[in-house]
Design brief:
The structure is a single chain. This protein is of the alpha/beta class. The protein folds into 3 domains: 70 residues, Winged helix-like DNA-binding domain superfamily/Winged helix DNA-binding domain (Arc Repressor Mutant, subunit A, Orthogonal Bundle), CATH 1.10.10.10; 89 residues, D-Maltodextrin-Binding Protein, domain 2, CATH 3.40.190; 95 residues, Periplasmic binding protein-like II (D-Maltodextrin-Binding Protein, domain 2), CATH 3.40.190. Helix content is 40%, strand content 22%. The chain has a 5-stranded mixed beta sheet, sandwiched between helices. Strands 10-7-11 form a 3-stranded antiparallel beta sheet. Strands 1-2 form a two-stranded antiparallel ribbon. Helix 1 packs across helix 4 and helix 2 packs across helix 3. It is flat, with a radius of gyration of 22 Å.
Length: 282
């Protein structure tokens, strides 16, 4: 039996969502198209993986087993592809440098002094830890904290954190403010690292008032511009994006954002070590 990894990946999403419609949205498929993929997979393995449960679905015991093993298989496949590509890059001496925009000017300037060929790759805000852990990039420039416990890093840049408000918001006219002054303001919710970027808990011990969940910088700024919630971000994001309808105000009593060069020690090549040393040199 030849298992189609695309079918396995689709079923894993169905298992995570426990809902065909939501899974189809994540996979950018139609519901009938996703249903056909699941049925094709069931014919391939020869057992029922899903059961109708009222208006929803639930996994059979076989489906639960398949979902667990499929996740492990897909992770292994991703590691296999990443390791193969990394070997090819290492042979050619190419270093793949991931970055979560914006790339600090100081790091960009140092890149101009690097001798090794560097391939820049923009890394998705939400997938940055996954990309680093899987070895899809050799090095990554990103803001702390890092979710991957295996990652090592050196801080190369520090910058203030700022609050973003819609232009008409009363606090948008301020030159600076305290974190306590935004306790009653809804803030965009984040899928990763929310404790740091949303300052949770606040100094008084309370949690933020959560606004809409966002999955990218662009989405976050759009929500703020429409008045859906405020945000807290780094000053370089404010400078780089300059979004229409959003005003940024420095927060004076919280720690700075730290930008680091990070790497997975199990995937680093000699060429990547040389680039890392150049970028992190004091």
């Amino acid at each position: 039996m030849d298992l189609d990894l695309r079918l396995a990946r689709a079923f894993v999403v169905v298992a995570e969502e426990e809902h065909i419609g939501r899974a189809a949205d994540r996979l950018h498929l139609s519901q009938p198209g996703l249903t056909k993929q699941v049925r094709r997979l069931e014919r391939l393995v020869g057992v029922a993986l899903l059961q109708r449960d009222g208006r929803g679905i639930r996994l059979t015991r076989a489906g639960e087993t398949f979902a667990t093993e499929a996740r492990a298989l897909l992770e292994r496949a991703e590691r296999l592809v990443a390791a193969t590509r990394q070997a090819a890059r290492a042979e050619a001496g190419v270093v793949r440098l991931g970055f979560v925009p914006p790339l600090p000017a100081a790091v960009s300037a140092r890149l101009g002094e690097v001798d090794s060929p560097v391939e820049l790759r923009r890394v998705d805000w939400v997938r940055r830890d996954e990309v680093l852990a899987a070895g899809e990039v050799d090095l990554c420039v990103l803001a702390l904290p890092i979710g991957s416990p295996a990652a090592e890093y050196v801080v190369v840049w520090r910058e203030p954190r700022v609050a973003g408000f819609p232009a008409a918001h009363p606090l948008a006219a301020r030159e600076e403010l305290s974190i306590r002054e935004v306790d009653d303001e809804p803030i965009v919710d984040l899928p990763t690292h929310r404790d740091f970027w949303c300052v949770d808990p606040r100094p008084g011990g309370r949690s933020p008032i959560w606004g809409p969940m966002v999955h990218s910088v662009e989405e976050m700024l759009e929500v703020v511009a429409r008045g859906g919630a405020m945000c807290i971000t780094s000053s370089s994001v404010a400078e780089f994006y300059r979004p229409t309808g959003v005003v940024f105000v420095p927060i004076v009593d919280i720690s700075d954002a730290e930008i680091a060069v990070a790497w997975n020690p199990t995937h680093v090549t000699p060429a990547a070590e040389a680039v890392r040393d150049s970028l992190t040199a004091r």
